[in-house]
Specification:
- It contains eight helices and 20 strands.
- It is mainly beta.
- It has one domain.
- The strands form four sheets. It has a ten-stranded antiparallel sheet, sandwiched between helices. Strands 4-3-6-7 form a four-stranded antiparallel sheet, with no helix packed on it. It has a three-stranded mixed sheet with strand order 12-1-17.
- Strand 3 and strand 4 form a beta hairpin.
- The radius of gyration is 22 Å and the shape is globular.
- It starts with 6 loop residues before the first strand and ends with a helix.
- About 7% of the residues have low confidence.
Length: 438
């Protein structure tokens, strides 16, 4: 069984919008616990900056920043930049900055400026002797044991997580659609097979279909596209027990994170298997049999088979196929237990019209980061009418960018410069529209 893949909806702009069952977002009288802060007006300090490698000065992408002693965290974006909002009650604590293969750094929050912070991490060297002596002899057996132990090593209590989700669609390098949301993720214990639930709290969007030439694209699934990349919660979508024999697992190298020795296990499907499966790297704490992260992609062995995985609806005379599909998932640790912290999906694909000489290239990115969490009881799981459905198209559900203080104290992923520029243009246009309407 393959990973639940994002679904693409394409339509010709001159035609009526394709009909699609999209879940109605409803809220009961009791909002999720993790969002009560906004109503009580808790003050916070905001810090921004960049995380870099000390020796080369290169930006570190997806580094984790956590307020020590709390569950408040964020990550750096693809340019190494971060934005962290810390409630006033925690501003005298330390900031813990970590990244795979680097020494963790602890910084007193009072020593940070509000802007322009530059945090440098040192590479954590691994002795070759550690690799030679402790290297696992059977990579497949290590993967099986890691998956088997997820009930012991990962959260075993129902957990309510606050998460920030963003999805973008680009035509070549131009942003044509942007949607963001703060959501509640109700994570069930890793030891049970019950699916997680998602509740939408805040969302905003902008779509400029004039840049999409003759087609309009939409991403179906919203936050679920990233949630199902949590392979320790949903191993059946990539490493179902019957599918493990389709992969070749090999020990590659070792690295360190948070003073843990991490082994990198490479995997790829065996030659002769025509079905598009996956290839990538697993980062495993071999001593404790814990998956700390994974980076993998779809093997596009047949473009037509790959297209069937992603394209739900399209015009008859249009051919659409993915040229790249990549995934990432990172886990975090608290009090000896691990939990889902961040995941992303990147898709690049081509749209080819039968009556045109040239095809168009598009890319779609979806990412979600857990910014806070707390343990809850089973009774606090939202009712079905409060949850968003897996068929959601977030860009259809969200409102515009009119409120500059939209997110309040909620932590978000700092937008890349191109997205930041697009947001500023949207806000300027909205202000002009408001003045003209007055």
């Amino acid at each position: 069984m393959l990973l639940r893949t994002p679904s693409l909806i394409l339509k010709v702009k001159s035609q009526a919008l394709l009909l699609l069952a999209v879940g109605l977002i409803m809220f009961g009288p009791n909002k999720a616990l993790s969002f009560q802060q906004e109503e009580t007006g808790v003050d916070y300090n905001e810090y921004s900056g960049e995380v870099k490698e000390e020796s080369s000065n290169k930006s570190l992408v997806f580094a984790t920043l956590t307020v020590e002693g709390t569950n408040i965290s964020t990550i750096t974006n693809t340019e190494g930049n971060f934005l962290l909002k810390v409630p006033k009650e925690h501003i005298n604590k330390n900031l813990v900055v970590s990244f795979l293969g680097y020494k963790t750094k602890i910084i007193p929050i009072p020593s940070l400026g509000r802007e322009g912070n530059e945090i440098s991490l040192k590479v954590s060297a691994t002795q070759l002797s550690e690799v030679n002596i402790n290297a696992p002899k059977d990579a497949l057996a290590l993967v099986k044991e890691t998956l088997k132990n997820r009930g012991e090593n990962y959260f075993e209590d129902p957990t309510l997580m606050t998460a920030f989700y963003r999805e973008t669609i680009k035509r070549r390098r131009k942003n044509v659609s942007l949607a963001e949301a703060v959501v509640n993720v109700y994570k069930t214990p890793y030891s049970i097979g019950r699916d997680d639930a998602v509740e939408l709290y805040k969302a905003r969007k902008s779509t400029d279909y004039s840049k999409l030439d003759t087609v309009a694209l939409k991403l179906q699934g919203g936050p679920y596209n990233t949630l199902y990349v949590d392979m320790m919660k949903y191993p059946q979508y990539i490493f179902a027990e019957d599918d493990l024999t389709n992969y070749k697992f090999t020990f590659d190298r070792s690295t360190r994170t948070n003073d843990r020795l991490i082994y990198v296990i490479k995997f790829d499907q065996y030659e002769g298997i025509l079905e598009p499966l996956y290839q990538g790297e697993l980062y495993i704490d071999v001593e404790n049999k814990i998956l700390t992260g994974a980076i993998f992609s779809l093997n596009i062995t047949d473009r037509n088979l790959a297209a069937q995985l992603f394209v739900r609806k399209k015009p008859a005379r249009v051919d659409v196929w993915p040229t790249e599909v990549a995934y990432r998932v990172d886990y975090r640790e608290k009090d000896g237990k691990w939990f889902y912290g961040y995941s992303s999906v990147f898709m690049e694909f081509k749209v080819d019209w039968a009556d045109k000489w040239f095809n168009s290239q598009y890319s779609m990115t979806a990412e979600m980061a857990i910014t806070d969490w707390e343990k809850v009881t089973k009774a606090e799981r939202p009712k079905y009418r409060q949850r968003i459905r897996e068929s959601i198209i977030l860009s259809d559900e969200a409102s515009g960018f009119s409120d500059p203080n939209f997110w309040g104290e909620y932590n978000i992923i700092e937008p890349e410069k191109s997205i930041e520029s697009a947001i500023r243009k949207i806000q300027r246009q909205l202000r002009r529209d408001e003045r003209n309407s007055d």
